Amino acid sequence: MKVYRLIAIIFLFAFSVMSAKDADKLSISYEIQPYYDLKLFRLSVTLEFKGDSSGETRIIIPNEYGGQKQFDGIKNLRATSSNTYIVDTNIKNEKIIKYSPNTFVRLEYQVEEIRNDDIELGNHYQTVIRKGTIHFLGETFFILPDWGDEKEFSFKLIWKNIPSNWSLANSFGVNQKTQEFKTQLWKLRYSIFAGGDFRISKKTSGNNSVFVAIKGKYKFNDNQFLDFTETIIRNERTFWNDFNYPFFLVTVLPINGTGDQAGTGRFNSFALFIDQSRDIDFRLKRVLAHETFHNWIGASMPTSPPEQLVYWFLEGFTDYYARLILLRSKQITFDEYLNDVNSVLEKYAKNPFRYEKNERLVKDFWSDSDLQRIPYFRGDLFAHNLNAAIIKYSGGKKNLDDFMRDLLNRCKTQNMTISNGTLSALIRYFAGETILSDIMRTLNQGYSIKMNPDALGPCVELTYDTSRRFWLIGEEYEIYSYKLREGSSDKKCLEWFNVK
């Protein structure tokens, strides 16, 4: 008996040692502090992690995001741990770190703002690093070991020598100068960090808290924006029946440009960039509802590469549900819904890339703004047609909501990834071959989308007009639109969209 106990003790000791070693290997720490010079302000970063037995680790240096470059903002990278060397590779933003096996590796670098002009569309994703304000996305700031996006790590973030009057907010917490959390590498990259003269406010619903961190003055006040944000997020959580997001942050940063806006959904967060003349109008409501919906379409639904091939689903279906969530939460009227759908139909009809095959997006998505809009338009219109097809195919027992929730469940329980193949199989299951054939003909052969006359319900009818572009050589095309049938009531129209 004593022998068995001794063996058990030895086993437990060995296991604890291995666990400690594993914990070391799975931990990454960053210490971030201001760096002041006569003519510049930077953030100084110390990165530390446990090296493995190979004595080599590849690191990824921030390069660009959304077509906006950041590589030149990373300065003075150097190794400060003993026997550690940085080796160049043939890829500009990747390097090899060589070190003594199984030792801690320490690197230091600085990050500075590289824009020479004001913050505006076209440079808004680049880091903002100024004496009174910092704002950046994870992939534009953090140098990361190339250890695979899906593995979970223990992270420690230390904000050192931060001015006492600064607010701090990021995708993992608010006003915490030391943060420890476990998450996957992609979630750190897919995060937001803000500090300085941001005004932070909070609203709680049940066990879920929403924070907004706002810089600048707008036509709306902070409480109005917070109330609207919490309403949208609560309705989206309810749609998915998913309340595993107890924390959510929205940052608001002013940009130059009359009426301009942009936004990007991140892990547990959303970054909004808007001109200070803006109010909480339809456009702002739509972008916020769209980007927060990406917490599910996108963050909770992994895609098979190349991702551009399913942008029609990731972006277009998100556009569809952003508008629908706004309608269901009574943040817009049915007239606003209808006018926006008609606007999409007109823009789609006039877009010069409407006959392009889906594969064109893989290489050229960022090359032209008109091309970038095509998957948004296609997916939005596909979603309306698919919803009507599912309702008809199921005899009124199901709609697109059921399709979406089933898709999310499969991604979570069956490790399914989003691709045109997996989406096709589920479309066929929910709606049959006809609608699937229509969608694939558009994607694969560039056919124009034919709208279902009943796609917006029984109280709306489809009409079209012929217009001409005033080019040197004109082009005729049909512009479809929906209008209310005579005698239709708001209640009848809203029933189709499950507005309660």
Q: Any idea of the CATH class of the largest domain?
A: Mainly Beta
User: Which spans of ≥5 residues are poorly predicted at pLDDT below 50?
Assistant: 1-24, 468-473
* Number of DSSP E strands: 24
Q: What structural class should be given to the helix and strand makeup? A: alpha+beta
Distance between the first and last residues' Cα: 68 Å
Please list the strands of the largest sheet in the order they lie side by side: 6-9-2-1-13-16
Radius of gyration: 25 Å
Give the overall shape, derived from the CA principal axes: globular
Number of domains: 2
Which whole number gives the mean pLDDT? 90
Helical fraction equals 25-40%
CATH topology of the largest domain: Immunoglobulin-like
CATH architecture of the largest domain: Sandwich
Largest sheet: 6 strands, mixed
Number of helices: 12
Strand content of the residues, in percent? Answer: 25-35%
